[in-house]
Amino acid sequence: MDRRIGVILVVILVELAFRLVYSTVSLPVNPLFFTMLVRVVETLIILGLAFRLSGVSTRSIPREIAIGAGVAAAFGAAVVLGDAVSRAFLQGGALRLLIGRQEVADPAMFFLVGCVIAPFAEELFFRGLLYSWLRQRMPMIASIVVSALFFAGMHGFIAPVQIVGGLIFAGLYEWRGNIWAPYTVHAAANFGIWILPWLYPSW
What we know:
Layout: H1 3-24, H2 31-50, H3 61-86, H4 94-98, H5 107-135, H6 140-154, H7 160-176, H8 180-199
């Protein structure tokens, strides 16, 4: 068995076990803290069992992060511009239909989990392991689409925002060959989805 698929199965089992515990046992634990715990455990499993296969290796992490930051800035600008144009013919703009305000009791914890830890664990899993495994067996476009569908499905339902994100992150992984640029864009996107609704006074 390919080592990647073995680690993928282990991570899926760990995820299911944590979800089962959370849904059946009343734990006096902050949901964000619980999510952080799950993602840290999954990250340690992936790095411990498949470090060389996880997409973390690259010649220059700062360079890859800079590339990701550039892509994130360009994509963010395109999203804001697209929303501004859409407001000419769509009441409230397109973004309002796609994302909503998230009420957050602990912004620092939300930022740490949602914009730092969770995107890293997800990039290790969905791009470092799953996408690279698919890519050895399927053409590039099929691998990008299938991995994006898995990524969106993991969020509970297949929504346009997650589909677009999955396509972009997988495309970046294909281009760069490591998780750092997609991770940077993923982290920035999560931050943008959280913060953008609060920047529009009419949201």
